Q: What sequence folds into this?
């Protein structure tokens, strides 16, 4: 276990990760989806401003919102782009996911999380 994974284990919160799966098609042949629970994992969730000091996620102008977060997940996490993460009663969309590596080994994952309203 590396230092970031140790920090996630010590200070992280349990989050729920939801993936979208197709449940069928509608009367026009368009796919229908539902969100289903993929996993419950420990992750370290921080405000985006705190992340600016340690890394960079490239996003188009105007994408950053005040309620957005950055999540640090262990290397073996099931989180993927377009998943949803539930933390502290709020749902967030995984907009971008970056792997932090050392050589060919994944050390941890960094996810940019946009808060969903509604």
A:
């Amino acid at each position: 276990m590396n230092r970031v994974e140790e920090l996630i284990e010590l200070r992280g919160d349990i989050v729920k990760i939801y993936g979208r799966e197709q449940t069928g098609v509608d009367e026009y042949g368009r796919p229908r989806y539902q969100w289903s629970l993929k996993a419950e994992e420990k992750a370290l969730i921080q405000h985006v401003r705190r992340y600016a000091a340690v890394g960079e996620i490239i996003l188009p102008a105007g994408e950053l919102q005040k309620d957005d977060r950055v999540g640090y997940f262990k290397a073996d996490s099931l989180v993927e782009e377009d998943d949803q993460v539930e933390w502290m009663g709020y749902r967030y969309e995984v907009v971008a996911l970056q792997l932090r590596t050392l050589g060919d080994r994944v050390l941890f994952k960094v996810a940019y999380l946009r808060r969903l309203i509604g």
The CA atoms of residues 39 and 78 lie 7 Å apart. The first strand starts at residue 13 and ends at 25.
